[in-house]
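Thread title: Can someone regenerate the structure for this chain?

I was given the following input by a collaborator and told the matching structure tokens would be attached. They weren't. Posting the sequence so someone can regenerate them.
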Amino acid sequence: QVRLAESGGGLVQPGGSLRLSCASSGTNINLYVMGWYRQAPGNERELVAHITTDGYRYYKESVKGRFIISRDTAKRTVDLQMNNLKPEDTGVYYCNRRFGDFGWGQGTQVTVSS
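Best answer:
Regenerated them for you:
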């Protein structure tokens, strides 16, 4: 059974940074296109960024230039470095397979507020 576990969220002031990490068990996520998603209160879950197996990166327009998605193939994790955070980045962040579904983990809460 595949399990995904997100970590690294927290409360940060506008302009601050956080680094999220997605760990997996039950599969090798290095073999898949992996994405980071977020769900803001009252909104549907949306794709924030994804990374392909050969390193191509896609970003939602509103996070371009601020977020960086990366893989650590040795650790089999997918990370999301978030810089210059804005209040509208607030939400629960999840990782999952981009084309397919490993099932949703519990996510990690990111709150950007002064």
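The mean pLDDT is 96.
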